[in-house]
Structure to design on (336 residues):
């Protein structure tokens, strides 16, 4: 896998639906988001994540 | 357009693999992240707690429950001893302690942890999504003890919050629907359960892909519901799909795989009896 420098900037092009969501939440219009790799990692891997407690049925 | 970047740290890369259900790839990276945090000078207690928590999540995924519990206990102690701890992180670890006891079937012990985590979140206020996720986790522990009324109320309230932004919260909605559907099935409300579980399967497949290990859970529960409704052919097909996912991604000896395999065998036996 390619490694990136933490200060590299990442451009994420938005879909039509995502543009509408951004407009709805922030009132701003745009075609893409730009984050540093560090900022992106903070969003991908929040500091302390939570697990899920999912019921798995046994058919008895 | 530049190539999609990959995470720069073992912990972030490990978390990415874990999110994809690639547990064998995730484990060495998450263990390396813990080792690096242990050896850091000066030691950053919050960073170490985060690394321990991330490894704990993986250990739960692969049914190493004792190790997961020990990792969460240690993360909680570190957080409680650090002056700059964010209470949201403490709430997350209580949530995870509840989750590990849910997986081990210790529902009453897990309930106490889940209630503590939810109380912290509600005390902070504001983050309705996190509160809803904690409600679902608590409800699963109540469901495991037959405390149906409070469990159902929490699932419904959590879904009301999550559905306010259904697209963004699809993954969490799928978890809540799976658990609510399982509760309905256990109570014999099979038509209601089927509708809820069909949506849970659909959301899970959309969010994670059809072969992700987390898809197997609502598939199994939908199969149980179909079997109890007498639709053995559909149940058998759903069990086969769930079991294939579990065997491929979790291995033959994982508790989830074993449950799916035993359910499939009972369904096949019921089909044989019906044909005789």
């Amino acid at each position: 896998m390619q490694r990136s420098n933490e200060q590299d900037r990442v451009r994420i092009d938005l879909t039509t639906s995502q543009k509408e969501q951004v407009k709805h939440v922030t009132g701003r219009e745009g075609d893409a988001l730009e984050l540093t790799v560090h900022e992106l990692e903070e969003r991908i891997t929040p500091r302390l994540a939570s697990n899920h407690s999912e019921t798995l049925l046994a058919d008895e | 357009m530049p190539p999609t970047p990959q995470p720069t740290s073992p912990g972030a890369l490990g978390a990415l693999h874990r999110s994809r259900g690639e547990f064998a790839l995730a484990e060495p990276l998450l263990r390396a992240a813990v080792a690096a945090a242990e050896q850091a000078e000066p030691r950053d207690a919050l960073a170490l707690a985060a690394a321990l928590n991330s490894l704990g999540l993986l250990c739960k995924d692969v049914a190493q429950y004792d190790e997961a519990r020990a990792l969460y206990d240690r993360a909680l102690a570190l957080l409680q001893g650090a002056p700059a701890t964010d209470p949201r992180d403490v709430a997350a670890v209580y949530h995870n302690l509840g989750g590990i006891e849910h997986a081990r079937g210790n529902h009453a012990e897990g309930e106490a942890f889940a209630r503590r985590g939810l109380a912290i979140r509600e005390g902070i206020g504001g983050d309705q999504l996190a509160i809803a996720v904690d409600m679902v986790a608590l409800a699963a522990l109540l469901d495991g003890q037959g405390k149906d009324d409070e469990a159902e109320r929490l699932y419904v309230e959590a879904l009301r919050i999550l559905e306010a932004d259904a697209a963004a919260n699809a993954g969490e909605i799928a978890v809540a629907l799976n658990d609510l559907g399982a509760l309905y099935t256990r109570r014999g409300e099979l038509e209601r359960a089927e509708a809820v579980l069909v949506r849970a399967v659909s959301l899970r497949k959309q969010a994670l892909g059809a072969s992700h290990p987390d898809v197997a859970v609502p598939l199994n529960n939908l199969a149980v519901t179909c079997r109890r409704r007498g639709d053995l052919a559909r149940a058998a097909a759903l069990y086969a799909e769930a079991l294939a996912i579990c065997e491929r991604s979790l291995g033959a000896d994982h508790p989830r795989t074993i449950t799916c395999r035993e359910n499939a065998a009972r369904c096949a036996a019921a089909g044989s009896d019906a044909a005789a």
About this structure: The mean pLDDT of chain A is 75. Helices of chain A lie at 16-26, 37-44. Chain A touches chain B through 32 residues (CB under 8 Å). Chain A is about 30% helix and 15% strand.
